[in-house]
Design a protein that fits this description.
Layout lengths: L2 E2 L10 E7 L4 E7 L10 H14 L5 E8 L29 H16 L4 E6 L2 E3 L1 H6 L4 E5 L3 E3 L13 H8 L1 H10 L3 E2 H7 L4 E3 L4 H12 L4 H11 L7 H16 L2 H11 L11
Parallel strand pairs: 3-4, 4-5, 5-7, 6-8, 7-10
Antiparallel strand pairs: 1-2, 2-3, 8-9
Helix pairs in contact: 1-2, 4-5, 8-9
């Protein structure tokens, strides 16, 4: 049963955090909780998510995070409320544009979500639009309700999908990302699955059950091994292969010398579950 986390913010700026105890550690669900706006990303919500990322980054008891939207929708994208007065207004000569750091802050959030040492599951119901697709692209696994809808419609509004573009490319590959980002066309869950944005489509009403199975699968993995593997996966693709393999070798050596490896290999030899494994 999920409970509110007394050490986490309670519906802070539209973010509601629930903690689910496991046999070993716990999982947090982060609810985007502004249903009236279909969970649009305000500056305050972005800051609350960044604070949550910072809070859990060094939490050894946290096994993973599930990111969801309340009220039947995942996220309708970025809120333009903070930008309203600047729309269509040119800068004065020599003026620094305040929109640049405001927009860049969302990219900082996407980086922080990708860099979480815990696994990150995203569960999509309703719509995931614009910045919501950016959030989806940060996940280690994406589950979507069969009726979910996805789009990156910024260009159809005369806006640039600036901060999400690198993450969409990383998730979909360049060719598919071009189609998504340059047309803004709406895609259903089946199309998102085919393009690789979504990993699993669940029948109507089946998302919670599918999430429970996914959590159990991810909890078969040792937490520190997961964190080290995620760090390797974040190494820039342009990194020379010899350098990447050197980094990987050091990660392997450190992992093999860790208590986790000792416990995991002993459990395998004895044909018993590792101490971090959680049953579905």
């Amino acid at each position: 049963m999920s409970t509110s986390d007394p050490t986490a913010p309670h519906a802070q700026a539209g973010l509601r955090v629930e903690r689910q105890p496991l046999a070993a550690g716990f999982v947090e669900t982060w609810w985007l909780d502004q249903p009236a706006s279909r969970n649009a990303l305000t500056d305050a919500l972005v800051e609350a998510l960044l604070a949550a990322c910072g809070r859990v980054a060094a939490d050894p008891a946290l096994r993973g995070v599930v990111l969801r939207g309340a009220g039947g929708h995942f996220c309708a994208g970025g809120s333009l409320g903070g930008f309203a007065q600047a729309i269509g207004q040119p800068l004065a000569p020599g003026e620094d544009d305040p929109l640049v750091p405001m927009n860049r802050r969302f990219g900082t959030l996407l980086q922080a979500l990708c860099a979480l040492p815990q696994w990150l599951l995203v569960a999509v119901e309703g719509v995931a639009m614009g910045g919501g697709v950016g959030l989806v692209c940060c996940a280690d696994q994406v589950l979507a309700d069969a009726d979910a809808q996805f789009a990156t419609p910024e260009v159809t509004l005369g806006v640039v999908p600036a901060q999400i573009a690198p993450f969409v490319v990383r998730r979909l590959g360049a060719a598919r990302a071009r189609r998504w980002l340059l047309t803004g066309a709406r895609q259903d869950a089946a199309a998102a699955l085919q393009d690789g944005l979504v990993d699993e489509v669940t029948p109507a009403g089946g998302l919670d059950e599918a999430l429970a199975r996914a959590i159990a699968r991810h909890c078969a993995a040792a937490p520190q091994a997961v964190a080290a593997t995620k760090r390797l996966l974040l190494v820039e693709p342009e990194t020379p292969l010899p350098q990447l393999l050197d980094v990987a070798a050091h990660a392997f050596a450190a992992g093999l010398r860790s208590p986790e490896a000792q416990q995991g290999l002993a459990a395998f030899a004895a044909r018993r579950p590792a101490p971090w494994k959680v049953s579905a």
